[in-house]
Amino acid sequence: MIRTHNCGAIRPEDIGKRVKIAGWVRFSRDHGGVKFIDLADSYGITQVVLDPEAMPPGADIGALSKEIDSLSRESVIAVNGVVRERVPGTEDPRNPTGMVEVLIEDLTVLSRSKPIPFEIAEQKKSFLPNEDLRLKFRYLDLRRAEMIANLRLRHRLVSAARQFFDSEGFMEVETPILTRSTPEGARDFIVPSRTMPGKFYALPQSPQLYKQMLMIGGVDKYYQIARCFRDEDSRADRQPEFTQIDLEMSFVEEKDVQDVVERLLAHIWKSLYGSTVEIPFPRVRYKDAIEKFGTDAPDIRFGLEITEVTEIVADSSYEIFNKIIRKGGIVLGINVRSSLVSSSSSETTQIGRKEVDRLIDWAKQEGIGGLTWMRVTAEGLSSNIVKYFPAEIRQKLIRKMDADIGDLLLFVAGQRTQARRYAGSLRTKLARDLGLLDGKSHQFAWVVDCPLFVRDPLTGNLEPFHHPFVMPVDGYIEESSNVDELKGLSYDIVLDGCEIGSGSIRIHDPVLQKKIFRLLGMSDDEIERKFGFFLEALSYGAPPHGGIALGLDRLVSILVGSETIREVIAFPKNKRFQSPLDDSPAPIEESKLAELELLSLSSMGEEVKKEVQH
Hints:
Elements: E1 18-31, E2 34-41, E3 44-50, H1 61-69, E4 76-85, E5 100-111, H2 131-136, H3 138-141, H4 145-167, E6 171-172, E7 190-192, E8 200-202, H5 208-216, E9 221-229, E10 241-250, H6 254-273, E11 283-285, H7 286-293, E12 306-308, H8 310-313, H9 319-326, E13 330-336, H10 338-343, H11 353-365, E14 372-377, E15 380-382, H12 391-400, E16 408-414, H13 416-433, E17 444-448, E18 453-455, E19 462-464, E20 490-495, E21 498-505, H14 510-519, H15 524-538, E22 545-551, H16 552-559, H17 590-595, H18 606-613
Parallel strand pairs: 3-5, 6-9, 11-17
Antiparallel strand pairs: 1-2, 1-4, 2-3, 4-5, 7-8, 9-10, 10-22, 12-13, 13-16, 14-15, 14-16, 17-20, 18-19, 20-21, 21-22
Helix pairs in contact: 4-6, 4-16, 14-15
């Protein structure tokens, strides 16, 4: 065997044992002829030492010393030796192996390393190299203990999920990666067919249609750790390829799916942390989420709820508000209670004028335009603009916002959707600045009573809120129905203000499904071309069914405290969806394009090339 122990396994009870360990040379030091190496692998670090005075008779100390001197950092070596107690005063209690060391009797160089492009040893995030450099040498970045810990937690989470599904009678079924292109809300990645020139596969945005057809096929309870692909614009929590914990169930209602997901997450929590998570999770109506929290993924761990005060301030002479209200806009307020400030980790008991000015500057930088503020005093509201608000309006504001002496009232104004988004951002900013999240445990919540459709803000066209396969709440749509008011049997699950999953009860009636497609502007020819195979499947007796997809990458990134899912994916793309590691996407050889009967941009005229690129 190359090793008997890993580099994180040596303990004081191993003192006197002869061991073999192997790993990377993280650091080496020479203390007057006694040479130390921090030997690392994915399990930990063990100190190995060449001590001439402790070597057995006949050992070639000179050769060993020369070999150690020749080692570059991150070279791979194997060491045979005896475990001994460290010299008193040199122990490292932070390291599980820090009470012992391995006395080198024999050393073998397994491979040598070139000079490393960045430091691999543990260090603060602020000292890490830029992300593209880390991704170019991702195999080196993965050696860092933090990255290994992220991947290990991801593995343990998936393992716990599989255990739960197995105990619940779910069947793991793989769905195709090469599929038909169907509209599901994002652009498809397209794969040309060599055997059928001019025809293309699409990589699946999700297993949506296939898992529904599994229910039609009688699978009853399905799950999959599913790879998904979407050609979307880059964001911190997006990647062109990502992973979902996907599940679907037959003969269920909305609460049945939610119950399974809650118990799944409770089981995962117990497996990862040994603690319980309280179920059922709180429910927040979609309308309340938007109006009270300014987002459809609310963080409900702190107060600072949003209050609309448009009708109250409309009677003031404050022209900034009046101009926005005349154009159909709204005014929203947040009460920063003095009790919240005094109980937070902030050193102050009140947000002073300098802090308010900094918030106003932040609002301008965020495109909000600015903030209006008033403070509640024993005499009433105080600020440089209260003169525009008669006493009666000021009293109404205090009552509406449930304000008390010492509270700070902040206001944003704008068009309805924009203003709510701004207020939601302000709410999050305040929570972070005031330390309202410090010491808070994670909090799941369901967002329910979601709309069936939304309108495209530019075109006004009807679009599905989730996707076109969501069952309407009533199970049907009347011809006289106001489609803008229809709700669907859909639900989102949120963790700490981040959506980690979306699900619904699905349409199992082909007639209703076709009606939905028509409402979305599809012609009968388009419906048949894109979804004919699926409608036919529904026509052979489809059971009522529903499910959900949980974003695995997003869930793990929240649990490890990362702001980006790139930190929990072994080989992610960068912010531009490029891979510095293998330089993909990359040009394809002309011979391969010819084999696929695809035109090359290099062979086109400039006008044709611009059109294709567009």
